[in-house]
Amino acid sequence: MSRLSFKGGIHPLKEIHEGKEATKAKPIRALVPEEVCIPVDMHLGAPSIPCVKKGDLVKMGQVIAEPAGPRGIPVHASVSGEVTAVVPKQQLHGKPSTCICIRNDKQDTWVERHQLGSVETAPADKIVTAIRNAGICGMGGACFPTHAKMALPEGKTVDTIILNGSECETFITADHRLMLEQPERVVDGLRASMRAMGVLKGVIAIEENKLDAYEAIKKAAAGREGVSVALLKTKYPQGGEKQLIQAVTGREVPSGGLPMDAHVVVLNVATAAAITDAVTEGKPLIDRVTTVTGIVNEPSNLLVRIGTPVSEVTAACGGTTEEPGKMFFGGSMTGLALPDDTVSVTKANNCLVVVNKKDAVLQETSACIRCSRCIAACPIMLNPQRLNVLCEAGDLAQAKKENMMDCILCHSCHYVCPARIKFPFKEAKEKIAARRI
Amino acid sequence: MNLRMSAGPHFVARESTQTLMLDVIIALIPTVAAGVYLFGLRAAWVLAVAVISAVLAEFIWQKLAKKSVRVGDLSAVVTGLILGLNMPAEAPLWLPAIGSFIAILLVKQLFGGIGHNFMNPAMLARGVMLVSWPAQMTIYTLPIRVLGNTSVVPSPDVVSAATPLIRPSAYSTYDLLIGNIPGTVGEVCKLAIIIGFLYMLFVGTISWHIPVTFVGSVALLSWILGSDPLTAILSGGVLFGAVFMATDYVTNPLLNIGHLIFGIGCGIIVVVIREFGNYPEGVTFAILLMNTATPLIDRWTNRRVYGTVKKHA
Fold first, then answer.
1. In a domain, B7, yes or no
2. Cβ–Cβ < 8 Å for A174, A329
3. Residues of the domain holding B142
4. Quick one: fold of A138-280?
């Protein structure tokens, strides 16, 4: 079977099968939380505005925060019950987020829902609005509002939608299980998106370490108009938009541009499944599949209500085998560390990894030995060794000239570095952007 | 709950500076074994003095300079070992000690330690010794034992002999390959070097680019100039230099295209020195010259960044 890929890249944690062994065979099971605390700023852009107050009774799927501006999305109650607080709570980083906390009455009393019909018959011009009303944002991690991604500026054209089922990050099996167990939901979501955008070609791209999911999706996609399935090489960052577009279409996103400049829109497979629910059931995005793994007693793929605190998630997996030293959302390459276990699971969190004290210790950095491993690893063909020297010397103007802003922060260079250099590219990019160097 | 907050990656590759150096040491085992077998215990002494002096020099410097002691990264062991393998077995034992001190103190630490030297420490130390103590550095003797079926008569006593570079017709291709010839401890057994090369390729310590272009260009140029290409690459230190010294990360270019230029440059200089120079061998100076050209090569080479149009340097 031919497998598509991109230039550069790495195979992280190859020796332990990308850390996915513990959960890849675990069927998705639902977690019913006691209480949820839903942040109003889960998506990229201006936070939504709370429209409920303490003491209100809310139904499942009810809008509890209104979108701010045309690119914003609403936030919905993920359980039915009483609002116990609307308070700022510390989430991953930065200032505390406003959270709406609801005690779950476990009745699952749904708000009235309006469905559009099947994905093939729903009025095409109403789909984008339905996606927005359902509060859907990119569930692969970025949480960019999907309706805003679909609204192309004047003069831009898209001919292909790629569904990202590569799941190239370590540890995560949430998309794997979703594609395996509910392939129709994924394919339907692609068809709805194609119809909404008037795009004739849709490709579902899956890495070859998930052959069972590939077969399931292939079966579900058979006979669907314009839909094809592509098998990708198991390589990181295969699921990066730029790499995925290069692998599937052979095109490159121009430096400084967006996928639509390569006439492509990339959506995550979980996002596609949420789109299906929005169109066929009028169901907003109130839950998602999250892989929970690491030192938990029962590594699992959980269907988690949005806003469920991490403490309830780890408890649902039998607690931890030893004292945690670190927890992060996402895979080990780009995952975001948690300050504690009171943080809520959001629409973006596909995975929670709990690490013991020993593995949480950072290794000491030593001098660069110019081994070129970072250069071979860089999927953008940058020279991380040289950029690191420039960043350390504070010469950000020169770093910008040498394409610093094209770095996608995949951390491949950092992963392979035998001297454990912590390439400071996120800070460098932020400084260049802020100072307009 | 006391959790560590840090940015990704939360796990990194197992490969570290130390494991890379260890892989080079493992790759050198066949060469060390062949050298000690062919030249006897005397060769083992040269290697031992070189390694111990190199580690000691690094340790003392880092202590005196109040730096963290990093002899555990094994880079000084590699430097000492390679330096010893670059010396004749009959060299006086003060010579490897001095050589290691030159390599570690003068070439490596004075320029800032690991990663900051602009020439290969062992190579420059050999160069310095070759110029300062030419007689002691070129006491080439016949092996005291031979390997396999050969017409070469091993000599249990120390008998000086001309290297194949001076008298190429004296030895068969088999002798050149297996090491039944006079020369430095490490350079004679080409078979052992090739085994080490294949090991490093297999585990990914080095890529093929520099050794293959280096050896290939020596063969091609020698052939063009009327010499036997096989004898050219199996004589002297070409193979040892191409596999273990030109591939030193710190002192060769970063990009693959740079590696190709570096390898070809080394090959050209070796043949020019051999064919037109006063020295019978040119590997040392070829690699040192290309070491100094490395920053220039890095400046002149680039690759097309994703999503951009190729820039011309």
1. no
2. no
3. 17-300
4. Rossmann fold (3.40.50)
pTM: 0.93
Q: What is the pLDDT of residue B312?
A: 47
Q: Which has the closest alpha carbon to A97: A328, A339, A434, A271?
A: A339
Q: What domain count does chain B have?
A: 1
Q: What is the pLDDT of residues A90-108, one digit of tens each?
A: 998 788 999 999 999 999 9
Please name the residues between 351 and 410 in chain A that touch chain B, using a CB distance below 8 Å: 353, 355, 359-363, 366-373, 375, 379-383, 385-386, 403, 406
Supply the CATH number for residue B174's domain: 1.10.3430
Beta carbons of B11 and A13 less than 8 Å apart: yes
- Name the β-bridge partners of B174: none
Interface of A with B in 170-209 (CB under 8 A): 170
End-to-end, the C-alpha distance of chain B in Å comes to: 53
Locate B9 and state its tokens: 């990656």
The alpha carbons of chain A give a radius of gyration, in whole angstroms, of 21
The Cα–Cα gap between A151 and A154 comes to 9
Which residue's entry shows tokens 């070796």? Answer: B270
Q: Which of A264, A383, A390, A401 would best serve as a mutation to test chain B binding (most B beta carbons within 10 A)? A: A383
Model confidence over A31-56: pLDDT tens digits? 999 999 999 999 999 999 999 999 99
CATH code linked to domain A33-105+286-359: 3.10.20.600
Helix axes B256-276, B283-300, angle to 10 degrees: 150
N-term to C-term CA, chain A: 47
| Domain residue extents for chain A | 33-105+286-359, 138-280, 373-435
The reply to whether B22 falls in a domain is: yes
